Amino acid sequence: MTKRKNSLALIGTLILLVSLGVPMMQCAPAAEEVTPPPEEEVTPPQEEEVTPPAEEIKYGGRLNIGFTAMLPSLRQTTTVMHTNWGCLWDLIVYDNWAAYNLPPDYYKFNPEFVQSYETSEDGLTWTLHLVEGATWHDGVPVTAEDIKFNCEVIISTGGGDVDFCVDHVEIIDDYTAKVVNTRALTTVNPPGWWSWNPILPKHIFEPYKDNIEACPNEESIGSGPFKLKEFKPEEYMWLEAYEDYWGGRPYVDEVLFRLYPTMETMLMALEKGEIDVLGNAYLPPALVEEFEANPNIAVEVVPGITIYDLCFNLHKDTPLRDKNVRKAIAYGIDRDRLIDMAFMGHAVKNDSWVYAEDPMHNPNLPQYDYDPDKANEILDGADYTDTDGDGIRNDPATGKNLAFELMCPGSDVGIVKMATLIKEMLPGIGVDVDLAVLDYDTYVSLIWNPPADGYEMGLRYVEPSPAPYSDWIWIEAMSWGSGGDWWNPSYYDNPHFNELVVLLSTAQSMEERKEYMYEMQEILSEDFPEVFLIRPKAISVYRTDKFEGWENEVGGPVSWFNPWSIVKVHLK
Questions:
Q1: Percent of the chain scoring above 70 in pLDDT
Q2: How confident is the model at residue 54 (pLDDT cuts 50, 70, 90)?
Q3: Which of 124, 491, 518, 538 is deepest in the core (most CB within 10 A)?
């Protein structure tokens, strides 16, 4: 789940074209040819090198981005972080404490609103030096008072997240603040929330300090490079460049987020030029040749950020609480078939929330390749046998069939195909599956609220992003009441795992960080709150007829953590 830009002085690096010197011909008198003495070297005079003025980057135009799911309102709720639309809105309309970095500089501090910082020896005090001269979109200056409000009112009540440990803030001056924490945060990186917690205006949200989510936020006043022009739920969000942005205004005049009911209609809009790029969506493999034939569209394969997994509701009283059942299901799913049938080979097997290319990925994790014999052996050993002869195993405690509902969002073609295939596979190990394809909003409301017992198995995707911005992902396995509320869809409860997540946030070396991450990956691989399935490759697609300057990184040119294309693209 899931959430930028540095100073816009970094944007649009100008390429200087150096002209080549051209030798001038020398002429001798017509009557007599003069030959220079052999010992004397004559160098023809050279033209003086002239550097032409660099071509100016053009300002203007509207960048149109397509989505298949959007925010229902502009309230700053937990829903924001569960949608790509919401994360990008927070990244470009608001400033964050620090910015996401492009590769290969993921672990370097990238200043945004916090330009620099120092930490005390005990890690309890962070002195933040803020950017000067920033204003909110309504003209009100942004100061350390806003930082104090965000820390003490918003972040410190952030639902138990391990990084939300602010005790109080001391204001030194308008652009300097000391943040005093309840526990040490001396780490190899700033706290994870620095890159995905928008700084909200005190003068707008203070009347709602007891319930920030109650603020209608209809004007969406931020301090980022774009400001809200118009928002129509279920239709579009229209943004315009903020002329007084402290980092310099972006190149495009406007950005339009447009909602489409299906992937098919969104791709048709891309072909027609109605939109310029997909908002964190990949081109289906079957359409690669068709889109490659369009001279105004670029198709590129880059590493994907999406990880598909099968999560289990461990709050609901079903046999899924038995790890034997979950483990058997893991062996009963043919991942190779999912890759071939749902993604035409454009995917790889996945075993963790940490990408395989990340040095923090544990290479020694157990692999659960398709093995129906092993699955049947596990279920037989746990006394799940077919006692009534209908081909489906029975729960030894209740006698009921081992049958579960599997739900998925209908807005994702790939996930629907996978769900259909899993429904076909699991009867092979004596487990019956009832498939429920839901609209996205209903799906989200059920899967992120396991205590309501509204689902049993859910096929879902997560987008951790490259490290260290993916540290938030571990919250999704933290216990409810200890940080995982509304993040942990499985209702997984492991106190030791919770401790490791806290330790990760205070790791003071890369070696220590790796130690904690290795162990957390091992625990999840053994406990099966979720079964890791596959990671699709990102077949990114975007138009090239109007704009250039795309940042086509991991996950494509536009993703929940990559707003760089939006602030860097410019007219051709």
A1: 89
A2: low
A3: 538
